Amino acid sequence: MCLAFARGIGHKRLMLELVRSVPSSSDPIDCRMVAHDLWPRRFLERREELPVTLPSRVFWPRDDAEVQAVVRAARVERRAVVPFGAGSGVCGGISPSSTAWVLDLKRMDRVVSLDKERRTVTVEAGIIGDRLERALNARGFTLGHFPSSIYCSTVGGWVATRSAGQLSSRYGKIEDMVLAVHGVDGRGERLFAAIDDPTTGPAAVQLLTGSEGALAVLTRVVLRVQPLSSHRFLRGFSFRDLPTGLQAMRALLAAGEAPAVLRLYDPLDSALAGGAAAPDEPLRVHAGGIARAGLEDSGPAHGGDGEEPTLFDALVRRVEELAVFSRPRATRAIVGELLGRPGLANTILDRVHGQPRLVVGLEGDAADLERRAPRLRQTLLALGAADLGDSPGSRWLAHRHRVSYRMSKAFAVGGWVDTCEVACGWEQVTPLYQAVREALRDTALVLCHFSHAYLDGCSLYFTFAGGGTAGAGPRSALARYDTTWDRALTTIRRHGAVIAHHHGVGRSKVRGLRHAPGTRSLLDELKRTLDPDTILNPGVLGLPGAP
Amino acid sequence: MSEPTTTATTTTSTLPATAAQPALPADWAPLVERLRLAHLAGEGVDVDDVALGAPRLGAADALVIDAHNGLVDVDARLSLSLIARALRARGWALPLLRPLPAAPLWRLATRAPFVVDALVQRATLLSVDGDLVETPAAPRHAAGPSLLHTATAPAPMAVLVRARLRVVSAAHTTTWTERFDDAAALAARVRDLVDGARAVAACARGRTLVVLGGASLAPTGSAAGSTAPAPVHRVDDDGADEASDLRWTSARSLRPGDVFGIESALRAGRRVVSVPYLQRTAVLERARPPRALLDVKGATAALVDALASAPANAPRDGSHHTTTPTQTQESP
């Protein structure tokens, strides 16, 4: 008995000794940097001066062994361990308690190997997306994964949340690209799963993908890559109404076109963006695929005139046009007021009659695109499209990564902006779109685009913008934000759509998950076996979390 | 086991997006009882020892086509072979070329993860503890791990009861054949099809590749290393393509562009199938690896054991090769 006790003490000391060699900090500034992700609710809390919970310590492991050391020590100390990539999540997936340890994986950022023949790349989980893409581009390859957060998100984060990129219709979502994963579970054991490993197969890979750090800390992944395309074709079209535009998207997919870009914007979004028909503009095939061109021409270093407007900027512009004056402070105040009166704002915006705008892009070699581009145009014109020429596509290309970099100016005038991405079968897309707009009519302005399309359904990407109730006190923006999400999630569930297409669940959508008993038992057993002390990222996905 | 030669089909514009909390179909009760008794005795149930019988002929819900979304909702006791035949009569096709197995889909799924991975959009599952599980009715999701894949775990944690399979309209597709001088050129062509992500299905055997895809994809000249494409009839003719020597009973997933794995399988006389637009590839086999249905706790423990034991076999660079690595790897 005494020997066992002594061994226990020895084990604990050893674990804590090992973790001391892992770079770490308990400095409040370091801990503040990893205290939460970009969940807009957290910004509202900060604006309302609600306290921030800082984790106890942040570690920067350099390899799997150091990840193991931290997890094992945390288990001994019964502390939560929260894996952290770049913190660009928007669902509250990162929200450590005051006793938790955070594992910031950004020092594990190597491109380990590239297999050009098998088309695979092996990378550590903490690498930032654009660094990986640039490394691949330099060798003539692309991952084909372009989330708008590519400059501020990690590969591990992508896999943990089942991320999607802007070219998903061509390259698939991250779960279509991930071929093998390495990780460390809540017992501190190393794990490996590969789709071609007969002992694990695709099942183990797909059960760890999307686990949001609650089943294992992902440390390294093998991803599918493809050769860079040499040319691109981008074009804009408009439609008389949304169902016609959606029908056109389906028609292109059914014809086997696999467009790299396929983005339909709802009438309001299209009206705010502006643009005119250009039916006589010749079809142009440009050198450089969309993948490479996008990275070179967009991002934080590129800005200035001609920027694709955010919702806030577009509203400011419209108010200026209506008011026939340009006094920035006054205009912003008006927009802030409008965000606080969504019922009124929606009534005004109902009078804006836009036509849904579609941006289509193809990648390939020049000869291939010269053949496909006219056929694509003919298909769309036959379905009632109007040709808008090249400019919608080139504008999108230039500004496609901006949204994740800039906090909306709405926050500065007392408002808020958030996004919600869902997925469903094609027949539900229009009814769900209308139902969400109607349900939120008196709580938020709603824009929507449809940018991840499949033969068997589509994703709807909503943008909600609102503010506090005038004269209702400082917390009213938070209250209205929560009401908006409650209504949205209820409506989404009622229409049978899945509550997340590529942002994950985190904490913000847990209330939208209502697992049937069978689902619960499978998930809970996975959690119990891989993380018996429930120390890994407690609170996400509705899974149990003790520490 | 002989299979029925026909079944009822229904075509609808769409399938319900949500089902009310499903009730276990009575036909599956024997399996639940069998599992319960086995668990009490601390034993597993061999999937080959479970006979559930084929769906009642004429049952309206045995096979329901959703023309709007390109899906077919099927009773998982049907075989892929029978499903394909019923679909063809309605002008639809699975994204998988024939011949197809005669085993019921639920049993095939336990030995051919590729089938679930590529074909199944969503499913009603019966967990091995007897609970029903509905997976999300969406083309893709980010609402946690894919529980659909619990049906393909090393020890299945669940079995398919109903499945929605992705199908394509025959009106939009055509089939053609390409012949190659050697297996390496054929493997490279499969990889190129996967890279292109436009073809629906490809099936390679020996030096021949059969492709199902949009009419605009059919090559007008010779593909590199191939002779001129020729029209194909044999694989589409009922009966001939279901020859028993071509039937497969399991599938081993490959990395979709693994040219060496594909070439090696072709040289060994295996068939390699791809679903390029979904970026999935597998080698078809006639082996029947043992599959025991344990309880959820036991199945999960088996999965975690597999996860924990695999790293010892994994190369240091994190890749996992079933064939010889080559000098094509580089460390940037």
Brief descriptors of the model:
heterodimer, A: 547 residues, alpha+beta, Uridine Diphospho-n-acetylenolpyruvylglucosamine Reductase, domain 2, Vanillyl-alcohol Oxidase, Chain A, domain 3, 20 strands, B: 332 residues, Uridine Diphospho-n-acetylenolpyruvylglucosamine Reductase, domain 3, 7-stranded antiparallel beta sheet, 7 helices
Can you characterise this structure?
The complex is a heterodimer of chains A (547) and B (332). Chain A contains 20 helices and 20 strands. By secondary structure, chain A is α+β, with helices and mostly antiparallel strands. Chain A is globular, with a radius of gyration of 24 Å. Chain A starts with a helix and ends in a 17-residue tail after the last helix. Residues 300-308 of chain A have low confidence and may be disordered. By secondary structure, chain B is α+β, with helices and mostly antiparallel strands. Chain B is 22% helix and 25% strand. In chain B, strand 6 (120-127) and strand 7 form a beta hairpin. In chain B, helix 3 (105-111) crosses helix 4 and helix 5 crosses helix 6 (259-267). The longest helix of chain B has 14 residues, at 183-196. Chain B starts with 9 loop residues before the first strand and ends with a strand. The chains are: A alpha+beta (547), B alpha+beta (332). Strand 5 (111-115) of chain A pairs antiparallel with strand 18 of chain B, so a sheet runs across the interface.
